[in-house]
Amino acid sequence: MRGAAGRRQGEAVYAAGAIPRDAAFPQLEQLGDPRQLARVLQRRLGARFASGELQILDCSVSRVDSRRGRHPECWLQLRAEICDRPRRERGEQRFSAQLLPPEGLLERYERARRAAAVAPAYGDPICLVPEWSMILWAHPNDPALAALPWLADPARVLAAVRAAPARFGLEAGETATSCEVELCKYVPARRCSAQLRIGLGGPPGERRVHAKAFRADAAGRAHGIARGIALSPEARSGALRVARPFGLDPELGILFQEALPGAPLSRLFSERDLCAEAEQAGRALGALHRVELALPERCGVSEQIAELAAKGDRVLRSFPRAASRIAALRERLVAQADGLEPAPLVTVHGSFKPSHVMVADSGVALIDLDGASRGDAAYDLGRFAAHLLDASLAGSLDRARADAQLRALLGGHARSAERPVPERRWRWFAASHLLTSQLYKAVKRIDLGRSAPLVALAEELLACP
């Protein structure tokens, strides 16, 4: 599978000692030392590692995702550069890891070992690291995503396409002759996505399909949302363009849908002015907000305040030097929420940002709608604003261009939506997203030096009337 082994461009790797501390998982501090991490894993990844046939040259943590609650959990992504000494070859192995309480660790490990597993490129598929109360799954194994090993085997994917071509969007008379799979995104135990390039025996030559894998209990819901939006009057009229869903494999938990042409808006920041595309994206979002679907109610002011409480605590622990400023920002957000008028519920994207807007010659389309729900229209606008302004901090585009694109998006939405969204409302959501999304992601996988500029942006958004 292409894309599964090499480090993605821009992917962060934690430096020694940089992993945020978490009282629920004190072993995280030790995992931030690459040399200690390599020494321990050298003993625990299987017989060939223990014997020295396979040697870890470098090892690091690239993502930390811990959640508090009654049953705290912590998932990690790791990568290791490995030397196969007998073959005089080097390669890379990725791992997903779960930190668990010591009690019940062995039982959980034995249960994981009894599950079906495939051989990774190096070492054992599932390993126990008792020093850190940790279980490791070597890619492409995953404890909750049955589709990941399947996607790693193009021959199995091709056989499935031939057995049920309509599920993959093939038309009558089209015959699959080959299949390539490229992993696009992977979040351990939660979801992954891949692009399938299916070769055909005749015109049009190939068919591209986007595959999204979920936990078994989430795949059906994602498929239902995709179908409901694709069949809505707004999508049928052309006011809203989304990927057509082709089919669902309920056993593997995979949704197959149209692979849309073009590139994400976020990848085009440095190439040209995108105000026209941002305005189209605003119109498309307004059309989505007009879609009538029976969905769970989320993404409102009360839910965002709950996010501020839950994620804000971890952000505070991770940025001790900025803790007082972040705490004051959170208090200010909660206080200002009381002054926001109730808003009607609409169908919201739930994760609306520049990378979820596809730009092509034919126009723009919205992707990754599987988290759609009923909520506040300002939630989507604020999330997009937070990502756009954060991109200006990262240097992807200058602030003047970011402001112009934001104005274009808001204007397009105002012309398409049934009801206008007050400026004060989307600014509140944008400021809160900078804390619950951008700062929180900095803790998980980016870097810990971005707190001051992100907090300053949030303060600026709240200061405007």
Brief write-up:
With 465 residues, this protein is α+β, with helices and mostly antiparallel strands.
Describe this protein's structure.
- The protein is α+β, with helices and mostly antiparallel strands and 465 residues long.
- The chain folds into three domains: 28-139; 148-258, Phosphorylase Kinase, domain 1 (2-Layer Sandwich); 263-463, Aminoglycoside phosphotransferase (APH), C-terminal lobe (Aminoglycoside 3'-phosphotransferase, Chain: A, domain 2), CATH 3.90.1200.10.
- It has helices at residues 28-31, 34-44, 47-51, 105-114, 147-151, 154-163, 216-230, 233-236, 275-290, 301-318, 323-337, 377-394, 399-416, 423-445, 451-463, and strands spanning 54-67, 73-84, 89-99, 126-129, 134-138, 176-187, 191-200, 206-214, 245-249, 254-258, 263-264, 346-348, 357-360, 363-366, 373-375.
- The strands form four sheets. A five-stranded antiparallel beta sheet has the order 1-2-3-5-4. A five-stranded antiparallel beta sheet has the order 6-7-8-10-9, with helices on both faces. It has a three-stranded antiparallel beta sheet with strand order 11-13-14, covered by helices on one side.
- A hairpin with a 4-residue loop joins β4 (126-129) and β5.
- α10 packs antiparallel against α11 (323-337).
- The chain is globular.
- The relative contact order is 0.09.
